[in-house]
Each structure stands twice: as C-alpha cells, then as structure tokens.
Amino acid sequence: MRLLALVFLVLPLSPARAAEFHVAPGGDDAWTGTLAAPDAARHDGPFATLQRAQRAVRELPPAGRMAPVTVLVHDGRYELAEPLVFTPDDSGSAAAP
Questions:
Q1: Mind giving me the DSSP string for 12-36?
Q2: Mean pLDDT of 50-74
Q3: Residue-averaged pLDDT of the chain
Q4: What distances in angstroms separate CA 54 from CA 17, 34, 50, 66, one per listed residue?
Q5: Is the pTM here over 0.90, yes or no?
C-alpha cells in the first residue's frame, strides 16, 4: 500500500511528455496517429488527414499541452475538402510550442 501511495505522490511531479503525431496518405483517421507507418496487422498507424491530427492535438489533456507537440506530415498528396483553419488555441505557448 505504501508503494501505491508513493506512485501517486510522484506522478504529478513527472514532467509532461512531448506528443508526436504522424499524418500519411496511407493512414487512417481511426488510428492513434502515433506510428509513422501502419503496424503489420494494420490496426494502428498514422492519421490520414491533417484535420484529424489537428483534432488530436486539441483533444490532448491539459498535462499533454504542457510539453511540445509535433505533427509530422509525411510525403504525399493531401486534398482538403475545406480549409484547414488554425486559431489561437492551436498556438501553444513558449514552454510548449
């Protein structure tokens, strides 16, 4: 029980980890976007659209927004059905661009 209590005391002190998302033409917006290429079983991999990556960044919990966030757009063609609009909410901060 003491170990469990120690874990809960240390967790809030841990620095936030940087988030990284991938977008690729062969991706799928139902995937996590955390892998650069689809896994062997094609159960996870990059996102297919820039809009899905933007939504993933916006959906990060507050702790996830305390570290830098990177969206890697892989080579390929991306056609937009509508403009991709960035707002001040997409800007981050000096500590977490």
A1: GGSPPPPEEEEE-TT--TTS-S-SS
A2: 91
A3: 85
A4: 18, 13, 6, 17
A5: no
